[in-house]
Specification:
It is a single chain. This protein has eight helices and seven strands. The protein is an alpha+beta fold and 297 residues long. The radius of gyration is 36 Å and the shape is elongated.
Length: 297
């Protein structure tokens, strides 16, 4: 065997090993040396066959490697295909109902696949919590926010949730866009829906609650001389802390409860009548408070 054949055989063997192909061993060297012309000719033929087999195996391995690489590259998502809307849902499931939840979630995903714009669904390993409860986190992806909202408000999803109430204890999902939705989370049965109302409703509601808090707090602090001797920067910070606590724990829960008919989640639009009554009530309350505080000394 010449040097070229040896180099080619060695290169082919290395490629085969790198791709973990099982190749039957080929005996190239004769077990015993012989000076017989017939045996030498037979050995030359064997060497040529072995080299031809290794060349063929090398070519086939390279073709397979290229095909696998092209298939893997083609399977990668495009940069634009990852721009979609998603929702993450957390389910609280008793441990003994883990398999029932898996079966139910598969049915939910099948119903989501039938919806327009569905991309994929991801389910992560559960977290073990206290009292024998597992926290399952699932993410569903849609092409556009409109497609996601359409599925969230669909009858298919509602029917699936009604079926799953006997399996999981509670569930919740969150999707924040303005940073104010935490005040407008609504609890209905076992559902915690944190997809808040439209931004303009949130702004009006926050102003409705913030205006009287600041007005009353300013008059009370001024009347009793609270924070007068404090440095301005520290007094302002303390004032904001008090205002935020009163707004978050006292005022905003009352406003959300009174205007719950109007502060519906964005994917569940309120009726025209509810919008008219909600806007009129908010503006009337603001106007009345402005007249009241303006009349006070």
């Amino acid at each position: 065997m010449n040097a070229a054949h040896i180099a080619e055989c060695s290169r082919a063997k290395n490629v085969c090993i790198s791709h973990r192909l099982l190749v039957p061993p080929i005996n190239i060297e004769p077990e015993t040396s012989s000076n017989s012309p017939l045996e030498s000719s037979s050995f030359s033929v064997a060497k040529q066959r072995a080299a031809e087999q290794l060349r063929h195996l090398f070519k086939r391995t390279v073709v397979v490697s290229k095909a696998v690489s092209i298939r893997l590259i083609e399977s990668l998502p495009d940069a634009e295909s990852t721009d979609y809307s998603s929702v993450m849902v957390e389910y609280s499931v008793p441990r003994q109902k883990g398999w029932s939840f898996r079966l139910w979630h598969r049915q939910l995903v099948r119903s989501a696949k039938a919806s327009q714009g569905f991309v994929r669904a991801d389910r992560y390993r559960p977290l073990k919590c206290k009292d024998g409860v597992l926290k399952w986190h699932c993410v569903l992806h849609f092409e556009k926010p409109e497609h996601l909202n359409q599925w969230l408000a669909s009858t298919q999803r509602e029917a699936a949730l009604q079926t799953g109430k006997s399996i999981f204890e509670a569930y919740k999902f969150k999707s924040f866009s303005t940073g104010l939705e935490g005040w407008f989370s609504q609890r209905s049965g076992s559902e915690l829906d944190s997809l808040g109302p439209p931004a303009w409703k949130q702004i009006l509601s926050v102003v409705l609650g913030l205006y009287p808090v600041i007005s009353v707090q300013e008059r009370v602090f001024g009347y009793f001389g609270i924070l007068e001797d404090w440095p301005p920067a520290i007094a302002l910070c303390a004032n904001l802390i008090v205002t935020s606590c009163i707004l978050s724990f006292v005022v905003m829960p009352i406003i959300v409860r009174l205007l719950h008919f109007w502060l519906q989640p964005a994917h569940q639009p309120a009726s025209m009548r509810a919008n008219v009554v909600g806007i009129a009530s908010t503006l009337t309350a603001l106007g009345s408070m402005m007249m009241l505080f303006n009349a006070l000394p």
